Amino acid sequence: TPEIRVTAQHVTVNFAADQTEFAWDSVLTRRDTLTLTAPTATEWRETWRADISPIWHAELAGIPVVHHQNEAGQWLPEWQPWPQESVTLNLSRPAGVPGQTLTIDHSQLEIAPGQRATDVTLSLTLRSSQGAQHTLTLPADAALQTLSINGTPQPIRQDGRHVTVPVVPGEQAITLKWRADSALVAHYVSPEFSLAAPSVNASINVRLPADRWILAVGGPPLGPAVLFWGVLLVIVLLAYGLGRSRITPLASWQWALLGIGLSQTTVVNALVVVGWLVALALRARLPVTVTKTQFNLVQIALAGLTLSALSMLFAAIQQGLLGTPNMQIAGNGSSALALNWFQDRTAEAYPVVWIWSVSLWVYRGLMLAWALWLAFALLGWLRWGWAAYARDGVWRSVSLFGTRAASATRATSGTATTDP
User: Fold this and answer.
1) What is the pLDDT at residue 399?
2) CB-based burial of residue 367 (10 Å sphere; 0-12 exposed, 13-18 middle, 19+ buried)?
3) Inter-axis angle of helices 252-262 and 292-322, to 10 degrees?
4) Which end of the chain has fewer CB atoms < 10 Å from its terminal CB, N or C?
5) 3-state SS of the chain: helix, strand, coil percent to 5?
6) Average pLDDT in the 154-175 region?
7) If you write DSSP's letter for every residue of 198-250 in order, what string do you get?
8) CA 2 from chain center: how many Å?
9) Is the pLDDT reported for residue 147 higher than 90?
């Protein structure tokens, strides 16, 4: 404090009229041992408080501490010495422990591939115990567009593939956006880059355009999966069994094609169509011993089932030609347009994902070919179905009133003949 007179290491204090307090600041030379001794004077009393930085280790000796913490709960030892009492502080700086000073707690990579370029957004949440500079390595064809730290844009440019960001002690959020020349192709692989440090909780989100038909995906274990291929295997096995059973005139390959097309609808719709064909085959084997009422009920049920099956086939064709493919993509909240991966621990190199996809027009072309095949095949199935439906007649008349009238006539004729 300026304008303070110091004589023989003593401060000369001048109190004005009605002045009750006087304060000053001074600096002590840093040393490993600091000893405080209370003066012999009784005109005043002293209170000592040691506000020690966390980077220092202090061993206290001398009179006991009166208070260890302040009102905020921070360590602030306090002494109230009597004359000639002393306190010794042995100060030392702890040696550093080997280990990393930077931790990446979370990272999220958002990829939006397009027809000509790919937009990528990388968000990092990191903690550091000291200030430094951290260098990230971008993909070879990446052009950095923006970089922000804690939501504030920073005028930082890339140097080749490298981007150096300042890191301050504490936690901070860093967001980078860049554009790559790589376009969306049949076999798309996410860009390869490095965070220059191990990280945890890495998320990868890929947003595909609506005109792509996803066939297969791959990446970290916790991610999406295309479940359609397992369903296709089940369809082929069931088609082989139905074809070998000879229940209907349909061959195994016809059952397989029919099942593949119906896989784009619901399971109920597929079961209705399959049940309709099996029911027609069983109708052809209906025994002649059934009653007229049972026969008519079977015919009514088959007629209703035929209308339902035809409507299901029409819905399947409409879904295939106008709708989107149902590849049953699931896993980690993924869908046909949003693929999400997660990895708990990663090395310096960021995880890579890959996607096999083709244009949606390929799917529509295949569904058009399936619809044409179904139209021609359905003509043959309907001829066979009508033959099975009309076997032993289409309808059997049942007249209760006509039977009673005939019985009454026969009874009257008999009475007239025998009555004299």
Assistant:
1) 62
2) buried
3) 60
4) C
5) 30, 30, 40
6) 92
7) -EEEEEEEEE--TTEEEEEEESSSBS-EETHHHHHHHHHHHHHHHHHHTSSS-
8) 64
9) yes
CA atoms within 13 A on the CB side of 263: 25
DSSP letter, residue 323: S
- Integer CA distances (angstroms), 101 to 53, 58, 201, 205, in order: 20, 24, 18, 28
34 and 57 in contact (C-beta within 8 Å)?
no
Region 367-395: mean pLDDT is 91
For residues 212 and 358, give the distance between their C-alpha atoms in angstroms, rounded to a whole number: 6
The answer to whether the Cα torsion of 177, 182, 184, 188 is positive or negative is negative
What is the spatial distance between Cα 302 and Cα 391, in angstroms, rounded to a whole number?
Answer: 13
Q: Decide: helix, strand or coil at residue 94.
A: coil
Mean pLDDT score across all residues of the chain: 88
Q: Do the Cβ atoms of 133 and 101 come closer than 8 Å?
A: no
pLDDT for position 103: 92
pLDDT tier at 215 (50, 70, 90 boundaries)? very high
List the alpha helices (DSSP H) in 263-399. Answer: 267-284, 292-322, 360-389
Of 181-185, 212-216, 373-377, give the lowest mean pLDDT range.
181-185
Question: In 26-117, where do the E strands start and end?
Answer: 33-37, 48-49, 57-62, 67-69, 75-79, 86-92, 102-113
Q: What's the mean pLDDT in 383-387? A: 92
Helix (H) or strand (E) holding 409: helix 400-418
pLDDT at 166 over 60: yes
What is the residue whose two structure tokens read 């960021």? Answer: 350
Say whether pTM exceeds 0.85.
Answer: no
